[in-house]
Structures are given as structure tokens and as C-alpha cells.
Design goal:
Low-confidence stretches: none
Largest sheet: 7 strands, mixed
Distance between the termini: 43 Å
CATH architecture of the largest domain: 3-Layer(aba) Sandwich
Number of strands: 14
Strand order of the largest sheet: 2-8-7-6-5-3-4
Strand content: 5-15%
Shape: globular
CATH class of the largest domain: Alpha Beta
């Protein structure tokens, strides 16, 4: 492995310091919750090694949420979705193997295969095409050396999705090619359209990954999972998890279990909160003549771009130093810095409005 720190982590709000930001529009989740928000009751737990696959009750809940034919035996709990994505990459790839990833995307999805020395092919999403996944272009990229295709739906940072027909077409492609589909479904429960089926329910060649970080606002407990109906591959994923950390934290699993059990209660509230924030963001884009976007179809992030000629360095400096606002610069996603990820689900509505006003002011101050 050839590790390199990623810009999205080096420049993350937690590394910059939350106390340096007034209006945090850089987050990619709903607002963080406290233990009292979650309503967790921790018994006098024995702090032993846990089940290496993960808490059986938690895995049962994930299987129920996924739907048939997934069972608890197909679920591996991990330390967040990032852990699951890393494990899959290291299990499926050797140096020189080919992998196709969508770009822009969550940075780990791109960087992990690079660290291994894989040959990474980029399915670049284009603004002019509404950041849609081009199935024909994807098909043309597959080779006999392709080990897997990695999609994130809804996408981070664009918020774009795909139809069930498109998902089924991708599944058919990977089955015909003899490779796999690694599907990051972290935002699946926050889609504004009919949710797609969990990809792992459609094929034994699909691996579905998700977590409690984005939709549930509890990234601090590091609780995610991979769903895979290929028993031999799941055993390999388990072996990787055991060699990296043996098991996940039994405390995190208990908190995650209690939180996930309340998903039916939480999701309607979360959906209403996201809809309000999206409306505020849409109104801002409609008013701001120097910004354009492809309106997101899910998640809590969007990826607008500045259309006016600006001094980009001055823009980001003014945005933070004078307007106290932080966004995810386009270079976090290997895109031009005139594009930015705005997370509208994390701030309060008042903070969001102030932050968006700061973006407009910084554009004005950085005009050439």
C-alpha cells in the first residue's frame, strides 16, 4: 500500500477546527446527534471482544432493512462505510488490476485503489449531462482485468441518483463481464425519489455498503456495514476485518443497534428537515446570478459552480476569513475549485442562510 493523505481529510472541518467556522457548509451528513438525542441506554456491558461479523441483532436489522433474499449471515459490520470500502478494495484488488470508479466521488473510493497500485478508470460525471451515469460509456470501459465497478448513489458530492432500470443495467453489465459492483448506498434512505433496492438483493456479484454517519448523524461511533450474498467473498471480507481490527467496538455496536432500531421514527423527521434545507438552497441558487447547479435528487449535498470570472484563492480566503463560511472545495473531488460541495443538511436553517449569503458575498469580493 502506498498511502497518501487526502485533501478532503487534511482540510476537513474537524482538522481545521470547528471553532474557526461560523457557518459550516462543508459537512456531508445531517446534523450530529448527542447520546441524549439518540436516547441510548447502555447497560453494564462486558467490554469483551464481540462477534467478529458484528452484533447479531444489529445484523438482523440491516438484513430486514435490505429486504429478501438478504439474511443476517450476509451482513458484516464495519467501522463506518469508509472501513467497508477499504476492506473491499484490499480484498478484490492487486497491483495492476483494473477498477472503474465514478468521479467526482467520496475520496476514499478513488484513493484506496490508487494506494494498492490498481489501474483506475474514471467514469467522469459531466455537468452538461446532469451528472448522470452513462451506462454505455461504463460498458465501454470494462476489460477482462476489471475487478469491480464502484458507484455511489445518491452521489457525493453531486446528489444525483439513477433509476431502477439503470441500476439493473449496471448489474447486468458486471454479471456479463464477470466482475463485481461495489455500491456505496450511504445516502440511499435520503433519496427524493423512490429508493432503489439494495444492490446486494439483485445479485451475488453486488456488494452494498452503508453506515449510520450520513442519514442518522452519528459518525462519531464509526458504525457501518457491507452486505454481500457471495459467502466466499464475505468470508474474505471478514478475514480482512479480523486482521485490521478483529471486531468492531461492542459499545459502538450497542449504540448503533439502538439508533438503527428507531429508523422508522427518525426518517420522516429527517426527510422533512432535508426538504426545508433544500428549498432554502434552491431559492439561493435561483437568486444568485453567478452560480449554477444540477439540483440534487438525494442526500444532503449539492455541487454548484461559480460562473463568473473570479480569483479562486481570494474567494476561498474571503469566504472563511471575512464571512466565516466553509464549503468543500472542488479539488477535494479532483474537480475545478470553481465548483464546491455545499452541505445543506448539517447547518441549521439560519446558519445555512447566512452561509449561502457568505458565498454570494465572497463571489462578489473575488470578481476579476
Amino acid at each position: 500500500m502506498n498511502y497518501a493523505r487526502m485533501a478532503i481529510e487534511q482540510e476537513s472541518p474537524e482538522q481545521l477546527g470547528y471553532d474557526t467556522i461560523r457557518y459550516n457548509l462543508a459537512e456531508s451528513s445531517v446534523r450530529d446527534r448527542t447520546l441524549s438525542d439518540v436516547g441510548v441506554e447502555l447497560p453494564d456491558m462486558l467490554l469483551c471482544y464481540g462477534d467478529h461479523l458484528g452484533h447479531p441483532g444489529f445484523r438482523e436489522l440491516v438484513a430486514e432493512q435490505s429486504g429478501p433474499p438478504v439474511s443476517a449471515a450476509d451482513v458484516l459490520l464495519t467501522a463506518g462505510a469508509a472501513h467497508a470500502l477499504f476492506i473491499v478494495a484490499t480484498c478484490l484488488l492487486d497491483p495492476g488490476d483494473h477498477v472503474v470508479v465514478v468521479r467526482p466521488n467520496y475520496a476514499t473510493i478513488i484513493e484506496a485503489p490508487r494506494s494498492i497500485g490498481a489501474d483506475v478508470g474514471y467514469l467522469d460525471l459531466r455537468f452538461e449531462e446532469g451528472y448522470r451515469i452513462d451506462i454505455d460509456r461504463l460498458a465501454s470501459m470494462l476489460t477482462p482485468a476489471t475487478r469491480y465497478v464502484n458507484l455511489t448513489v445518491p452521489n457525493n458530492p453531486t446528489g444525483q441518483g439513477m433509476t431502477r432500470g439503470e441500476l439493473e443495467a449496471v448489474v447486468e453489465l458486471v454479471e456479463r463481464a464477470g466482475c463485481r459492483l461495489l455500491m456505496d448506498e450511504t445516502y440511499r434512505e435520503m433519496t427524493f425519489d423512490e429508493p432503489l433496492p439494495v444492490a446486494a438483493t439483485l445479485s451475488t456479484r453486488a456488494i452494498s455498503v452503508s453506515s449510520l454517519s450520513k442519514s442518522y448523524g452519528i459518525p462519531g461511533i464509526r458504525m457501518g456495514w457491507a452486505v454481500c450474498r457471495d459467502g466466499a467473498l464475505l468470508e474474505t471480507l471478514l478475514a480482512a476485518k479480523e486482521q485490521i481490527g478483529i471486531c468492531t467496538s461492542v459499545v459502538d455496536e450497542e449504540i448503533g443497534l439502538q439508533a438503527f432500531a428507531r429508523r422508522g421514527e427518525w426518517l420522516p423527521y429527517i426527510g422533512a428537515r432535508i426538504a426545508e434545507a433544500l428549498s432554502v438552497t434552491r431559492d439561493w441558487v435561483d437568486r444568485e446570478e453567478h452560480v449554477e447547479w444540477v439540483e440534487p435528487r438525494g442526500g444532503v449535498v449539492c455541487f454548484p459552480r461559480v460562473t463568473a470570472p473570479i480569483d479562486v484563492d481570494a474567494f476561498y480566503r474571503l469566504l472563511l476569513e471575512e464571512h466565516g463560511t466553509y464549503v468543500g472545495s472542488g479539488h477535494w473531488f479532483e474537480q475545478p475549485r470553481t465548483s464546491m460541495r455545499i452541505g445543506y443538511g448539517w447547518p441549521t436553517v439560519a446558519e445555512l442562510k447566512q452561509g449561502l449569503a457568505g458565498v454570494s458575498a465572497a463571489i462578489g469580493g473575488a470578481r476579476r
